[in-house]
Amino acid sequence: MDFYAETGANNYRRIETLCKVLADLQNSGEEIMLVSSGAIGVGMGKTGLSKRPDETKKKQALAAIGQCELMFMYDKIFGEYNHSVAQILLTADAVETEKKRKNINNTIDELLSMGVIPIINENDTVSIDELEGNKIGDNDMLSAIVSHIINADRLVILTDIDGLYDSNPRENPNAKKLDVVTKINKSILDMAAGTGSNRGTGGMITKLQAADYATKRGIEVHVMNGTDPKTIYDIFEGKTPGTKFLAHR
């Protein structure tokens, strides 16, 4: 879900609501992680750029600027609800071996045991490959990979439509949302190709790919509209506000 525009403008109301919901869920006994994005866009806003640059070094510099702003914002908002946060920046090579994945798992486990909310993003500042397209995939896939590393119970992916539809709801008023998907196959992926979000990297298809990765590793996945983050509560109350993808191995 885009909480940050390409101009770097933040939707503060939505971000604050998301942080409040996550803090509340943590208070109820859930262990929460947040996979975030937007460092380059926020960096653009801080430096007054209106167009995303093509040069890799400029994108790296903007990511460095924007990441500071993002973490400052998360630290401030979560702090208002008496929660601490920690930053974890990952690159593709950080998850390529079992030893490296174990190191990530150990760090996250310790943070969660301390009651700290880990905030995870790809490290666009140092990883040229990621900025040029040879990366983990995007933050959807990153969230799935990290969910697997820590053996999460569920993964919630926020987007700007209500879930997976059998056709594009922006073009077809009779499009029907799928409440539950038992298994992701070619026909499901074909649906995603026609119902993509307008925002984010890759739209709905990348969310389906992430859901496929996670569900095959025993993790339940929810793809839902993040316009009102309070809807996340519904998932923890046994409801299906978006599309639920059942876990299987």
Question: Could you explain the architecture of this structure?
Answer:
The protein has 249 residues and is an alpha/beta fold. 43% of the residues lie in helices and 12% in strands. The protein has 9 helices and 7 strands, in the order αβααβαβααββααβαβ. It has helices at 12-27, 39-47, 56-80, 98-113, 128-131, 139-149, 186-194, 204-215, 232-236; strands spanning 34-35, 85-90, 117-122, 154-159, 180-181, 220-225, 243-245. The strands form 2 sheets. It has a 4-stranded mixed beta sheet with strand order 4-6-7-5, covered by helices on one side. It has a 3-stranded parallel beta sheet with strand order 1-3-2, with helices on both faces. β2, α4 (98-113) and β3 (117-122) form a beta-alpha-beta unit. α2 (39-47) packs across α3 (56-80) and α7 packs antiparallel against α8 (204-215). The model is unreliable at 130-134 and 196-202 (pLDDT under 50).
Gist of the model:
The protein has nine helices and seven strands; from the N terminus they run H-E-H-H-E-H-E-H-H-E-E-H-H-E-H-E.
